[in-house]
């Protein structure tokens, strides 16, 4: 048994010895190393300011690297094909190419940030457009009124939202991994689209829709404004709202949130359902741009969108995401595809390059996670 250490005696003003308590307080730490515990019923979160500064610096360096890569890629094609690549017509085409990728990437950013993945994006886009066009064909085809067009748009949004909702329910209620659940939806949605159309593309797209989608206020395609607005809204939701912070929390430590009583499954269902709504928007914009349902035109979409988001800095394993990085990541494959076409190089090389870049991006993401010990 250890012997208690007596308190030191000091003399009082009258000269008698008294026992003075020894201060038990720890020395105050400096601002860079001070630890702030945040206690709740289940865990303590420790924030170290110096580590946070290092991570912020790393994120800024990564974004700077993306910007440099984009500038180099853009400059390369501008040098080898200056007249064609830098023409106003091509710049508009480049912007229109980036629009569906960006809208899908906003949705995929939330999905990946929560620790999920969605391979059904291309098929859901196709099915959303097919259901809308099937309705329009049934009530008049190209010459329908604006009200009828709005109903068709609503049908596309509902179709996309329902597909996303089903994905979320399968993942949360049946406890099926997102990769398998969305792979199943990819086949089911595309199969449904082919059954509805008999395998033939529908082309009687309402003139009101095509005219609206092809508008160019200030010389800029109106779809660009739609995509930018969605990206800004996504950035605000991701970083400035409880929903966005919970999404990041789910991807970072899902079990901890469940112990705190937060409805993780409900959040996951919302994420996939809202993503489906965005896929429905892409389906409508695609119909308006190409005047066809393009059933076989979205096979590469999941790879391109996932690659763009991961290239932009969102972790494929959840818990970390940046919408600004997503925007930059979207522009890289868009410029690459456009430049390859302008240069007369087979577009199939885009798939090769995107696949390689995706693997490299995931490798560096894993490397950073190991260094952080996560």
UniProtKB/TrEMBL annotation:
One Gene Ontology cellular component annotation held by this UniProt entry: plasma membrane
Major localization class: membrane
GO terms assigned for molecular function: transmembrane transporter activity
Zinc-finger among keywords: no
Pfam family name, one: BPD_transp_2
PANTHER family for this protein: ABC TRANSPORTER PERMEASE PROTEIN YPHD-RELATED-RELATED (PTHR32196)
Membrane topology according to the record: Multi-pass membrane protein
Keywords annotated in UniProt: Cell membrane, Membrane, Transmembrane, Transmembrane helix
Localization: Cell membrane
Keyword Transmembrane tagged: yes
Segments of this protein annotated with the region Disordered: 1-23
Positions of transmembrane segments: 64-81, 148-170, 176-197, 218-238, 271-291, 303-336, 348-364
Name under which the protein is recorded: ABC transporter permease
